[in-house]
């Protein structure tokens, strides 16, 4: 349904479950994709699976210089960056009273500040092209809060506000900026939970199950598509009804 | 008019969609030529590319009029 032929997409955190599915979805719609992440092996595996139109661009998002350089490397590899999906994120969970400055700062740096820098880095090309799609992957906890994740919730809520401000600034240039807020998604991380834990989580979800990475990818694909041109500053909540914000 | 001024005027006319005779020495991009703040950023980007120069942000803020732009670029190019 959505055709991204001729578009070039940079996806961060493509070595993870959700990022990998997003890259697959964009690539499947015809886009050239640049796969970024810290762990190189899964990036190369994914690139091999995708075949043509896939580039591997390892990048450590806690390194400001590397973040600054990433949009340029992506533009060199693909000729442009028409679509940016900021999916990468880390957690350093701790109870608020025990949270160190370092735990706070590292999550803000990687999840919020690096996204700011990547958005800034791709804007010039998008402004000239009069077309661009930025999709920031936030989280249900950015609106609901979650104990032990003061830093993560702050970063995700910050992304939402930042996306709206940027959406205002560049809307007249054909560039949209939106968020996808996943709820509980089955990934390698949630696979470690036992059946009882999974049942308890599912009981809180009206849909009665955890989401799948490809269900997040479908939302990102829509927001990246030409069809979503009139959607900007929005958050698409993909959470099985867990929070009907 | 100098070659630089001609080239700057061409960019301004194309980007802002204004008549060339409105682009006078003292014409302010925002107040007289209808630019918004994003237009001024894009004009600076276009000047940088046309003339192969770097215009730092603090200098860009001082370029308010057509005359400012020609003067800055003449000194930098």
UniProtKB/TrEMBL annotation, chain A:
CDD domains found in the cross-reference section: BKR_SDR_c
Pathway membership, UniProt: Lipid metabolism; fatty acid biosynthesis
This protein's name: 3-oxoacyl-[acyl-carrier-protein] reductase
Any Pfam family: adh_short_C2
Enzyme Commission code(s) on record: 1.1.1.100
Domain of life: Bacteria
Keyword Thylakoid listed: no
GO molecular function, one term: 3-oxoacyl-[acyl-carrier-protein] reductase (NADPH) activity
Domain Ketoreductase: 7-188
Quaternary structure note: Homotetramer.
Record-stated family: Belongs to the short-chain dehydrogenases/reductases (SDR) family.
Catalyzed reaction equations: a (3R)-hydroxyacyl-[ACP] + NADP(+) = a 3-oxoacyl-[ACP] + NADPH + H(+)
Keywords linked to the UniProt accession: Fatty acid biosynthesis, Fatty acid metabolism, Lipid biosynthesis, Lipid metabolism, NADP, Oxidoreductase
Job description of the protein: Catalyzes the NADPH-dependent reduction of beta-ketoacyl-ACP substrates to beta-hydroxyacyl-ACP products, the first reductive step in the elongation cycle of fatty acid biosynthesis.
TrEMBL record, chain B:
Positions where O-(pantetheine 4'-phosphoryl)serine occurs in the chain: 37
Pathway where this protein functions: Lipid metabolism; fatty acid biosynthesis; Glycolipid biosynthesis; KDO(2)-lipid A biosynthesis
Source organism, top-level taxon: Bacteria
Database matches in Pfam families: PP-binding (PF00550)
Keywords, sorted A to Z: Cytoplasm, Fatty acid biosynthesis, Fatty acid metabolism, Lipid biosynthesis, Lipid metabolism, Phosphopantetheine, Phosphoprotein
Signal sequence coordinates: none
Domain Carrier, chain residue ranges per copy: 2-77
Subcellular location: Cytoplasm
Main location: cytoplasm
UniProt xrefs under SMART domains: PKS_PP
Modifications the protein undergoes after translation, according to the UniProt entry: 4'-phosphopantetheine is transferred from CoA to a specific serine of apo-ACP by AcpS. This modification is essential for activity because fatty acids are bound in thioester linkage to the sulfhydryl of the prosthetic group.
NCBIfam families linked: acyl_carrier (TIGR00517), PRK00982.1-2 (NF002148), PRK00982.1-3 (NF002149), PRK00982.1-4 (NF002150), PRK00982.1-5 (NF002151)
Family the entry assigns: Belongs to the acyl carrier protein (ACP) family.
Function: Carrier of the growing fatty acid chain in fatty acid biosynthesis.
Name of the featured protein: Acyl carrier protein
Native species: Albidovulum salinarum
């Amino acid at each position: 349904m959505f055709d991204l032929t001729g578009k070039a997409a940079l996806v961060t955190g493509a070595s993870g479950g959700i990022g990998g599915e997003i890259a697959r979805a964009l690539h499947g719609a015809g886009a050239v994709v640049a796969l970024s992440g810290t762990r190189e092996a899964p990036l190369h595996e994914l690139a091999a699976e995708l075949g043509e139109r896939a580039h591997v661009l390892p990048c450590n998002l806690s390194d400001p210089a590397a973040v600054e350089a990433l949009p340029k490397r992506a533009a060199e590899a693909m000729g442009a960056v028409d679509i940016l999906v900021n999916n990468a994120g880390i957690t350093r969970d701790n109870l608020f009273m025990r949270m160190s400055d370092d735990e706070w700062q590292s999550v803000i740096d990687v999840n919020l500040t690096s996204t700011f820098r990547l958005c800034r880095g791709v804007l010039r090309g998008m402004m000239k092209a009069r077309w661009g799609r930025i999709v920031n992957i936030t989280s249900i906890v950015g609106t609901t809060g979650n104990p032990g994740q003061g830093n993560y919730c702050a970063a995700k809520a910050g992304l939402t506000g930042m996306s709206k401000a940027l959406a205002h600034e560049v809307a007249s240039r054909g560039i949209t900026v939106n968020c996808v807020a996943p709820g509980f998604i089955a990934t390698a991380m949630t696979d470690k939970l036992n059946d009882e834990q999974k049942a308890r989580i599912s009981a809180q979800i009206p849909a009665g199950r955890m989401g799948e990475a490809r269900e997040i990818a479908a939302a990102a694909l829509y927001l990246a598509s030409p069809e979503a041109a009139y959607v900007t500053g929005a958050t698409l909540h993909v959470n099985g009804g867990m929070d009907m914000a | 008019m100098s070659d630089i001024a001609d080239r700057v005027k061409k960019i301004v006319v194309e980007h802002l969609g204004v008549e060339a005779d409105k682009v006078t020495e003292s014409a302010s991009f925002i107040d007289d030529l209808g630019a918004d703040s994003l237009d001024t950023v894009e004009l600076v980007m276009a000047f940088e590319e046309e003339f192969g120069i770097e215009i730092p942000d603090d200098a860009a803020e001082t370029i308010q009029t057509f005359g400012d732009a020609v003067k800055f670029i003449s000194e930098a190019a």
